Amino acid sequence: MPSCNLLLINGPNLNLLGTREPHVYGSTTLADVEAAARQQAASLSVSLATFQSNHEGAIVDRIQQARDEGVDAIVINPGGFTHTSVAIRDALLGVGVPYVELHVSNVHAREEWRRHSYFTDKAVAMVCGMGVYGYTAAIEFAARHMKTAAREKL
């Protein structure tokens, strides 16, 4: 039985991974990322659900649903909503589920407007600029961090 429940959320345009600006985001597809994430989660004895939407409200709804499902941590790549979505931020804070913010590219080395995030100041951790390997790092951290947190509660 998994000792930790993780939710991986991908925001707008991440369904285009592998074809969208491969010089920035690489050639690995979201399906490939999700398959690798599920395999990694199984090897860490954690459960993993995945979700992608181009719609802000759908992401808010999925975050709210996570609390009712007993999700222990969220790994979120908010995509373009990073710089605009107070609604997603409020949902994350409202459910009280710790989260790791994730970006494929190094947002700090890109356009000035990409450097502002509505999520970083409340995230347990932030991973960026590691390409799709960032998913591996974020899931590893979330799984191990949440397992440690659960043991400390005992």
The N- to C-terminal Cα distance equals 18 Å
Instruction: Evaluate the radius of gyration.
Output: 15 Å
CATH superfamily, by name, is Dehydroquinase, class II
Low-confidence stretches: none
CATH architecture: 3-Layer(aba) Sandwich
Shape: globular
Instruction: Write down the secondary-structure element order.
Output: EHHEHEHEEH
CATH topology: Rossmann fold
| Integer tally of domains | 1
Give the strand tally.
5
SS element count, helices: 5
Description of the structure:
Is involved in the catabolism of quinate. Allows the utilization of quinate as carbon source via the beta-ketoadipate pathway. Pfam families: DHquinase_II. It comes from Apiospora phragmitis. The protein has 154 residues and is α/β, with parallel strands linked by helices. Helix content is 40%, strand content 17%. The protein has helices at 22-25, 30-43, 56-68, 86-95, 133-153; strands at 5-10, 47-52, 73-77, 99-103, 125-128. Strands 2-1-3-4-5 form a 5-stranded parallel beta sheet, sandwiched between helices. The radius of gyration is 15 Å and the shape is globular.
What's a concise summary of this model?
The protein is of the alpha/beta class and about 150 residues long. The chain contains 5 helices and 5 strands.
Write the layout of secondary structure elements.
Layout: E1 5-10, H1 22-25, H2 30-43, E2 47-52, H3 56-68, E3 73-77, H4 86-95, E4 99-103, E5 125-128, H5 133-153
Helix pairs in contact: 2-5, 3-4
